[in-house]
Amino acid sequence: MPFQSIAHRGASALAPENTLASFEKAIELGFDYIELDVRLSKDKQLVVIHDADVQRTTDGEGQIEYFTVKDLKKLDAGSWFSPAFAGEKIPLLNEVLTRYSGKIGIIIEMKSPENHPGMTEILADTLKWFKSSSQIKVQSFHVNELKKFHQLAPKIPAGLLLSKPLDLFHLASYRDFASFLSVHHLLLSKSFINQAELFGYEIYSWTISKQYQFADMQRLGVQGIISDDEKRLPDSIMYVLITPFLKGQDFLKTLLA
Ligand code: G3P
Ligand code: CA
């Protein structure tokens, strides 16, 4: 079966993660989805960034929650990756939705929603206009906040991120609000996938960066592969790794249409 190809933080091996440049690159490469992370700014807007602070991926310092959007927008979110991306900005979730919904699927990860009161409600409110068919999904490691999100926005597919194994009892009880599981690839086995599929979950694996791992995941029969690369490779090598899989997926999808 074909899998959905999901670009982890955008095409983050080729452009600075979680920026418009990395999302554009993911579209250019032919990914089905982008995955991105959201956090809340001081003025309660959803901003697209992975870490709790801005040090690693911008030229600034400090926690996201102490920055207004106006101040976050002054930061350079591209130069740390390469001078070619100087001036790239931290995007707002609203900017990404406006620009890309309908063009590529979007998987939004709520980062630490339990520590940011209001995040789940603001996200549900932002997405309430989208239909389940618009290929927007939400995922989180946090069970209770994901449950709350599902209650507030039942049309948007919600997925639980897993970095630990899940027993049958939990698989059964989480199905009330989660329709997919994003699972660390080292936790995946055929028996786990069979059990999860009995409950009707889709399974996505993260984070796949090597060619043999794509093949392993395809053999296991996951429905989605969240991928990037463990180190920066020259463009040409990255294309060699990813392109055959994306082309193969397109071919399979045409056959099955
Ligand atoms: O989608 C899975 C993955 O994004 C979870 O890890 O740290 O990259 O957000 P992280
Ligand atoms: Ca993520």
UniProtKB/TrEMBL annotation:
It holds the Pfam family GDPD. Residues 3-237 form the GP-PDE domain. GO terms for biological process: lipid metabolic process. GO terms for molecular function: phosphoric diester hydrolase activity. It comes from the Bacteria. This is GP-PDE domain-containing protein. It comes from Sporosarcina globispora.
